[in-house]
Amino acid sequence: MAVTFQSDAWLGDAAFQRDAGFFRATFQSHAGFQSVTFRGDAKFGWATFEGHARFGSATFQHDADFGSAAFQREAQFGSATFQRRAHFGSATFAGRAQFESVTFAGASFPAATFQGYAGFRAATFAGAAWFELAAFERAAEFKSAVFRQGVGFGAAAFQQDAWFEKAILEQTATFGPLTCAGTVVVSGAVFRGPVTLLFAARRLECQRARWSSTAELRLRYAAVDFGHALFEYPLTISAEPAPFVHPTRGPVAEQDLAGTPDAGVRLMSLQGVDAAHLVLTDVDLAERLFARTVHLDQIRLEGLCTFAGTPPGTHWRRWRIVRFTPRRTLAEEHHWRASQPSTVPGWSTSGSDVVHVGPPQLALVYRALRKALEDGKDEPGAADFYYGEMEMRRHDRARTSRAERGLLHGYWLLSGYGLRASRALGWLAAMMFITVVLLMGFGLPKGDPQQEATGTVPRGGGKVTYVIGRDDPQNPSKNKFTGQRFEKALNVTLNSVVFRSSDQDLTTSGTYIEMTSRLSEPILLGLAAMAVRNRVKR
Questions:
Q1: What secondary structure does DSSP assign to 47-100, as a single string?
Q2: What does the pLDDT average to over 468-495?
Q3: Which residue, among 224, 223, 149, 225, has the nearest Cα to 193 in the 3D structure?
Q4: How far apart are CA 120 and CA 320, in angstroms?
Q5: In the 8-state DSSP scheme, what is residue 306?
Q6: Pairwise CA distance, residues 58 & 39, whole Å
Q7: How many Å apart are CA 359 and CA 369, to the nearest integer?
Q8: Closest by alpha carbon to 69, among 123, 16, 30?
Q9: How far apart are CA 353 and CA 458, in angstroms?
């Protein structure tokens, strides 16, 4: 039977030895349960509190059921302790919902403590909802909750998962800073006003979350899944280098996250996201999945955003030694290379779900990221993504012809796609050495040819006609590799590098050797110069 309290109900310091049955009760005036101890279940389901509801410092030793309760004015649960399940599902808070620490008569009281499951599923907070410094020792569920005014979770501590899935936050300005030793789930949540999320959590799931205004996510320790999130205004995800500081309580304690080795932020997925308004600052992207991200060429990468690298050292692949040039790579390339039959150790698929994309898709992703960095005037940073794009085109058997793959292979072999100056200089040195050896062996004559003049005197006198010529250069049969010949061959080779003629007499073979040298060596020198320029220009 429903009970109606027409006047104030003050039960301060009382104790309910058994279940407290207030199911569907109506409190037409104020209800005071400060410091009350509920040793049995506290049954306030479907109760109506028309006045203030005071449960400050109350102790709920068993389940506390406020499901579908209606709080028409302020609901005060500061310093309350919920030792078991606290159920506020579908409850309505028309006034201020206070679960934070309070100061009364000069004394400070701690915030509410939820030692068991805290359930606020589908609750409606029409007034401000304050959980400052609240402690949640078990999972906390705010699924489908509606927050119409301010939300305060500053310095709140969640020792397990915190669920805000499909919650609606209409006027939130700052959400946090809070700590969570588990996962903070805001998947499907709707943020209708400008918001700043301050989370120190092991994982943050934002799948299909929607931001209707500007937003900033300042995070610590978190692995972020941002798949299919929706936002039409600038949104920033950044790593907070130092512990958060509460405006009045000072640094926020992070003891629940003490076992996490790195306080950095790792972005796991942006699949299905329109990245046109996305800014990433100091975020670890080593495990990030970029495939199927829209407008990736407009993303902004600021600060120190890190990517996965190539396997270090040298490796055996079949019959040859393989060494990968150090560069920034995508997690999808790791997945693809690890799936190949001739893969080498170091291409990893750990840390995120495997997405099977091949070179055609990866080439497009690398191209988009390269353009994004070039638009941000970070051309040296874009070089690695250009290298990755060319690598994927070289391995693309579906969209790249065999002739084009051959050209790309040669471009890679000679200069690392115009980005590896040491490789081009190495080939140049080798080409010059070969040219010198060939000139000494076959190109230089055994001596400087002498000019000879021959004339014929006509009978009976008259003009004498002289014919000036010289013998064809002859290659010596011995003593080819002498210091003098080395000096001449080196002079011819150095002039060929800068596309000049040395005016040195050469044999027929030497002429062709010099022509080949004058064609190939300037190209190698140009590739080396281009590689240096691509690495250092800004």
A1: -EESS-EE-TT-EESS-EE-TT-EE-S-EE-TT-EE-S-EE-TT-EESS-EE-S
A2: 72
A3: 149
A4: 62
A5: B
A6: 11
A7: 15
A8: 123
A9: 99
- Alpha-carbon distance of 416 to 282, in angstroms, equals 28
The alpha carbon dihedral of 165, 167, 170, 175 has a sign of negative
Structure tokens at 80: 């309350």
Per-residue pLDDT for 322 more than 60? yes
CB 71 within 8 A of CB 50: no
- Tokens coding 404: 């084009």
**Does residue 506 contact residue 443 with C-beta atoms inside 8 Å?**
yes
C-alpha 517: how far from chain center? 46
Summarised one tens digit per residue, pLDDT across range 60-71 is: 999 999 999 999
Residue 256 is given by DSSP the state G
Q: How many CA atoms lie within 13 A of 201 on its CB side?
A: 29
Q: 409 in helix, strand or coil?
A: helix
User: In terms of residues, how long is the chain?
Assistant: 538
Q: Which residues pair with 26 in a beta bridge?
A: 4, 48
Tell the residue number behind the tokens 């304690």, with chain if given. 253
pLDDT computed for residue 299 by the predictor: 93
- The pTM assigned to this predicted structure is 0.81
- Which residue in this structure is represented by tokens 């449960």? 55
**pLDDT tens, position by position, 216-272:** 999 999 999 998 999 989 999 999 999 998 887 788 888 888 777 788 899 988 888
How many angstroms separate the CA atoms of 259 and 261, rounded? Answer: 6
Q: How far apart are CA 334 and CA 392, in angstroms?
A: 12
User: Cα–Cα distance between 217 and 223 in angstroms, integer?
Assistant: 12
Task: Single out the residue of 366, 361, 360 nearest to residue 307, CA to CA.
Answer: 366
Distance CA 521, CA 294 (A): 44
Strands 451-456 and 465-470: antiparallel
Q: Report the candidate in 299, 273, 271, 308 with the shortest Cα–Cα distance to residue 369.
A: 299
Distance CA 505, CA 133 (A): 90
User: Pairing mode, if any, of strands 215-220 and 250-251?
Assistant: unpaired
Distances from the Cα of 521 to the Cαs of 444, 475, 487, 525, in angstroms?
19, 24, 18, 6
